[in-house]
Amino acid sequence: MALLDGQTAVVTGGAQGIGFAIAQRLIAEGARVVIGDINEQTSKNAVGELGGPSVARYAVCDVRDLAQVEAMLDLAEREFGPVDVMVNNAGMTRDSTMRKMSEQDFDDVISVHLKGTWNGTRAAAGRMRERGSGAVVNLSSISGKVGFVGQTNYSAAKAGIVGLTKAAAKEVAHTGVRVNAVQPGLIRTAMTEAMPQRIWDQKMSEIPMGRAGEPDEVAKVVLFLASDLSSYMTGTVLEITGGRLM
């Protein structure tokens, strides 16, 4: 039997990149998935690539808006049944040094990552606790562990997700709901491959395994935390970095 056979999952930011890889992996293990994304056309295309409406649906969702997050969960429940797995993956970057960063760029990144994750965790856990089971997986980043130049907004948000995950895990553990997080390092996506070569090379020099990670390598760890393989784990943070910055 597949690890998530018959389960319903929601993945924010699931139309592309790491989020899409997570949706693919969850479907491969038997889940039916609703992806939430702000880009409707990209979401439509993603549903087709994921196998069509029998296994995937989409909701246009700005995770900063709790009402939109609740509507996304309503859609998932209506189409596939009660949500068993919630993956808070949606994000954005607005990199700049602190001296040059605008307040808007700081606020937007904090809001999408941190408030968005809070909205998703709160909404999903609120429903899961009524049934006595469920798994929430939040996407942090190695940037939330060490801090990188030009990412005071992103590093702060990703560090905040770790604290949020641990606090939420303590609040809902007695209800049968688990909340965990992952911290990816350098993962090969369209965004990271657009880096200047010197930045890419510098990051690669920090990785003992000598290569970037692939989106599915993140997805497989998310699957572990979403499934009963991690049934006695909550409030944990797993690094997916190839040993970078241990």
UniProtKB/TrEMBL annotation:
Species whose genome carries this gene: Speluncibacter jeojiensis
Record keywords: Oxidoreductase
Annotated SUPFAM superfamilies: NAD(P)-binding Rossmann-fold domains
EC class name: oxidoreductase
Keyword Iron: no
MF term (GO), any: 3-oxoacyl-[acyl-carrier-protein] reductase (NADPH) activity
SMART domains recorded: PKS_KR
Similarity section: Belongs to the short-chain dehydrogenases/reductases (SDR) family.
Name of the protein described by the UniProt record: 3-oxoacyl-ACP reductase FabG
Name of the coding gene: fabG
GO biological process: fatty acid elongation
Lineage, broadest ranks: Bacteria, Bacillati, Actinomycetota, Actinomycetes, Mycobacteriales
Record Pfam families: adh_short_C2 (PF13561)
Residues of the Ketoreductase domain: 7-190
